[in-house]
Amino acid sequence: MKKILLIWVLAIAITSCKEAQKEIEITKETTKVTDVIDLEPISEFTAAIEMAHKKDAFLDKDAVQYDFSVAFGGNTIFEGVITQETDGSMIHMVKNDGSVIVFDGDNVFASNEADLTNPMTRFHIFTWPYFFSMPYKLNDGGTIWQDEKAMTWGNTTFPTARLSFENGVGDTSEDWYEVYKNPETNVLAGVAYIVSYGKGVEAAEKEPHAAKYNELTMVDGVPFATNWSFHNWNTQDGYTNQIGLATIKNIQFVNKEDSFYAQPDGAGEVAMPGE
């Protein structure tokens, strides 16, 4: 009789444990569903740009590499080969003089002694890869969007929305971009922007600029602008006189080990602005 009672008690205990486990699993599933529902929805404006630029196909690749040159006022300020993880987590730059600048996901390192103290070093490694991959960065963590509106772009008007950032995002979180979308193709037509790096927001907003994305080319089904013209810009006229030009050549998707982005032998760390 005692054995029967013991078996009966054990059966009840096992059943209770199973029911409790079911409740835990149901709670977990409910939590997952709730987490998804609570996510901030992506705007139609940015979703259209991402779709036109084949974001899924781009992010499915490991890294992208390209020859890059940019000049302002007739002076080339950077020329070399840039390799970047498609999610922007790591960047490797080889300048034409053979010197290297890398971002390993946490810190920036430079092999050239002059680059260690040059305030433009961090600007170069973060600015040009960001402009290159902007169609895929529109919904990164810390991005803030204002309502869509129409603004002048050349001889017409394009839908735009202003992108800004939460405090602490990047080296210059106070920068903003006015993002222009081609209403016929949904591709990124260009951006107006300020550069507060090294001079502050108040001074930067006195001379906003625009980057106009031109000459799309397809690489493995993904469109890239291979010519960026830089202009002065104002809210009434849109982009005005040209002040600079960037050219992108030999775009290819590549695979790189994490060690490719590691601190080069003999390289030093490039400090944050103001440090």
Give me the secondary-structure topology.
Layout: H1 2-38, H2 44-52, H3 55-59, E1 63-72, E2 75-85, E3 91-95, E4 100-103, E5 108-110, H4 113-117, H5 120-132, E6 143-145, E7 149-153, E8 156-165, E9 177-181, E10 188-193, H6 201-204, E11 209-219, E12 222-234, E13 238-254, E14 268-270
Antiparallel strand pairs: 1-2, 1-13, 2-3, 3-4, 4-5, 5-14, 6-8, 7-8, 8-9, 9-10, 10-11, 11-12, 12-13
Explain what you see.
The chain is an alpha+beta fold. The chain is built from six helices and 14 strands. Strand 12 and strand 13 form a beta hairpin. The N and C termini lie far apart (80 Å). The N terminus is likely disordered.
Q: For the record, give the distance between the C-alpha atoms at the N and C termini, rounded to a whole number.
A: 80 Å
Structural class: alpha+beta
Strand content: 35-45%
Mean pLDDT: 85
CATH architecture of the largest domain: Clam
Helix-strand string? HHHEEEEEHHEEEEEHEEEE
CATH class of the largest domain: Mainly Beta
- Rg, alpha carbons: 25 Å
Question: Can you tell me the overall shape?
Answer: globular
Main sheet?
Answer: 14 strands, antiparallel
- The total tally of domains equals 2
Strand element count? 14
Please name the CATH topology of the largest domain: outer membrane lipoprotein receptor (LolB), chain A
Percentage of residues in helical conformation: 25-40%
What does this entry show, briefly?
By secondary structure, the chain is an alpha+beta fold.
